[in-house]
Amino acid sequence: MDRRSIIDCLINSISRFIHLITCHDANNTPVLKLFRNSISVLKLLKSILDELLVSQLSLDDQLVNVIEQVDVFVNESREMLESLPLKTSTLYNVLQCGPLLLKLHRSALEACGFLRKILELSPSITLPISIQNSFQELQCAAIDRTSDLIELTLKEQKENTMPSRQHTVKIMESLGLTSGNEILVESIALEKEKLRADEKDVRNNVDINLIHQLIGLVKHIKGVVVKSDQFGVVNGVFIPTYFRCPLSLQIMFDPVLLASGQTFERSFIQKWLDHGLRVCPKTHQNLRHINLVPNNTVKGLIENWSKENGILLHHYNGHRQIFRDMENEVEEESVGFSSSHDGRLAIKEHDSSSSNHPNVQDPDNDYQSDSVSSLNSSNKEISESPNLLQNNDLSPQHLSSTTSGSNFPASAFCIEKLIEDLRSSSSELQESTTLKLRLLTKDSMENRTLIAQCGAISLLISLLHSTSKKTQENAVTSLMNLSIHNDNKTTIVEAGAIEPLIYVLKYGNPTARENSAASLFSLSSIEEYKIKIGQTNAVRGLVNLLGSGSLRGKKDAAAALFNLSILHENKIRIIQAGAVRYLVELLDPEKGMVDKAIAVLANLSTVPEGRSTITQEGGIPSLVEIVESGTQRGKENAAFVLSQLCINSTKFCNLVLQEGAVPPLIALTQLGTPRAKEKAQQILGHFRSQRVGRS
Q1: Which region holds residue 310: left if phi is over 0, alpha if psi is between -120 and 50, else beta?
Q2: Cα distance between residue 338 and residue 350, in whole Å
Q3: What is the pLDDT of residue 27?
Q4: In this structure, are residues 594 and 634 in contact, taking their beta carbons and an 8 Å threshold?
Q5: Could you read off the pLDDT of 173-218 as tens digits, one per residue?
């Protein structure tokens, strides 16, 4: 081909490409913006080529090669744009187009510079000022590197590291993924890409793994959006994450339950279903049906919260721009189980006036417990599982309007790689992998579901006997976190976790022992597992931890013993294991465990062995002192124990009288909770009847 014809071909190719892009002016998608960014450099190149045609300069081989290379990139880009389905995934399209457009931009800029030098060296040619100015501007212009950022972020995901927040935000702003609606559109597009990929065979060059990785990236983007203070605030009040739809990321007006048990805003989940998608957007479970059931519990909680905070929901528009001040994260206050900084779970204190968790009581329904059900794991756990909000044991007082904590969702690809690493014989790899699982299960209910579904539980259980104390600690902490999800409790127990947990309770390091006790507490929230755990040596191990553990360990042991002591046959086992002596010692206010210890003693006092042991261990003086100066919850439970002692034994009744119980009991009838008043009046009435009987 004639060398000048090569220039004509490139000019023609550029003209066709620019015309095609111009035809799409009405479409303002992020992908087309990438194509439009290439127009400026191509227009400059075309201007210089026009000048070159006018001149009579000869073209050397190097220049011809550069022009031919640019022509190839221009035509490939045009063909890609012509075949591009613009209604598909933005992330997927940018990854497909970005690298080619980057090559086009660089090669065109290189050609411009090459040609400019040739023309400037020719004394007979003077480049127009406009061309010189345009070239200088392009030299300084930043190249769009969104596709590079996406590839880097996917690489970080694949290597099981937290993607850079800065990179993620740049991707979101560049592609317009800054609100729930745009993220929903992208999620739907990726799910459709996945369906198309599943329908085709491998010869169609569709990278299914890439689509799965991009789905994981969208989940991470959602996590970043949820953590944005600006996005989750209305009238200066933080919107609790469990009031925000997982799809729209905004407060729900019409919450409905999907077949998977997850709660969504009706219009958003309907949009998802209308696109023919039959998987849960949160758990990716296949849906048995697509019926939507109103979640009146959540709706009522939202309405109560809005009234308490003076927010008119119908005036609130949740669509906001975000990502301007995201570094100041606020950890959520916890309800019940809470995730602390090291990934373990703690049992928080509750005020009896606001505690509305399941009341685990003696057969006569006579007292409320300070302990909590693992259902109410934390605000974070509630936000991750709308199933929990179906329970009527949650009151609006429980729900704090704090911001979301860290909640990084992992991709299935990432999880499967970690599961594979768990099987490794390398102790170092096992330790690092269990640590990653520990962190992934710390806050995210979605991760807990996915990790369990991928088969991690049995492998983690096997590592409870690891000779590496750190691996053992990470494994038991991961199981503890996984057990917060109710569906995982059965899987954990049926996989044979109880005996290995007891082993850790006996031989693990202090943190592992604490988290083993917390795991048993979580598992024992299910009635049948109270029986199963009670029949093992778990009680002995928990009592030993109660006596010799750290404060955190003692609290976890007390919580587990409380759950187990609800069952009548377990009460005797706990008493015989020597728990009462330690529980009475913990009634000392300086120990920091009065309310938890008295809650367990209240359960044990319903059997004769418990009452006699409490008396033998010198518990009566402490009980009277708690009635006089304890917390409202402590007074309530102490009054219950004293009523059990007095009503069931004249001897014990006299001991209570000798300790000067009457004045604090009289005060309790005036200032206590309704239940405490009732018990105090019952005891005082019994004292009077005893006096009358003697006279």
Answers
A1: left
A2: 13
A3: 61
A4: yes
A5: 888 887 777 888 888 888 888 877 765 554 444 567 888 888 888 8
Find the helix or strand (DSSP H, E) in which 234 lies: strand 233-234
As a whole number of Å, the CA-based R_g of the chain is: 34
Strand segments (E) across 258-363: 263-265, 293-294, 337-339, 345-347
- How many DSSP H helices and E strands does the chain contain? 32, 7
Shortest CA distance to 320 belongs to which of 252, 234, 201?
A: 234
233 is written with which tokens? 């605030």
If one counts every other C-beta atom within 10 angstroms of the C-beta of residue 12, the result is 13
What integer is the mean pLDDT of 235-245? 77
Distances (CA, A) of 642 to 14, 609, 619, 680, 690: 92, 15, 10, 9, 15
Joined tokens for residue 37: 């960014």
* CB-based contact 197:206 (threshold 8 Å): yes
Can you tell me which residue has the tokens 């590197």? Answer: 145
Domain boundaries, the chain: 3-144, 150-312
Q: Are 144 and 172 in contact (CB under 8 A)?
A: no
Length of the chain: 695
**Pick from 206, 92, 88: nearest CA to 154:** 92
What confidence score (pLDDT) does residue 215 get? 86
- Is the separation of the CB atoms in 411 and 158 below 8 Å? no
Tokens of 291: 């019926």
Cβ atoms of residues 574 and 564 within 8 Å: yes
What are the C-alpha distances in Å from 223 to residues 54, 131, 297, 326, 405?
Answer: 57, 46, 25, 12, 10
Which residue in 581, 676, 666 sits closest to 619, CA to CA? Answer: 581
Q: Which of these, 299, 297, 280, 276, lies nearest to 288 by C-alpha position? A: 280
**Looking at domain 150-312, which of 2.40.128.50, 3.30.40.10, 3.40.50.720, 3.40.47.10 is its CATH number?**
3.30.40.10
The residue assigned the tokens 């890409």 is 193
Please tell me the distance from the alpha carbon of residue 57 to that of residue 55, in angstroms, as a whole number. 6
Looking at the predicted structure, is the pLDDT value of residue 373 above 60?
Answer: no
Q: Are 225 and 183 in contact (CB under 8 A)?
A: yes
| Nearest alpha-carbon partner for 478 in 524, 502, 511 | 511
Q: Give which of 136, 166, 164 is closest to 41, Cα–Cα.
A: 136
Handedness of CA 366, 367, 373, 378 (dihedral sign): positive
Q: What's this model's pTM, rounded to 2 decimal places?
A: 0.50
Q: What does the pLDDT look like over 393-429, one tens digit per residue?
A: 322 232 222 223 334 555 667 788 888 899 988 999 9
Lowest mean pLDDT among 72-76, 384-388, 587-591: 384-388
**φ/ψ (deg, to 5) at 337:** -70, 135
Q: Say how far apart CA 463 and CA 430 lie, in whole Å.
A: 9
Assess contact for 503 and 520: CB atoms under 8 A. Answer: no
Q: What is the spatial distance between Cα 256 and Cα 264, in angstroms, rounded to a whole number?
A: 6
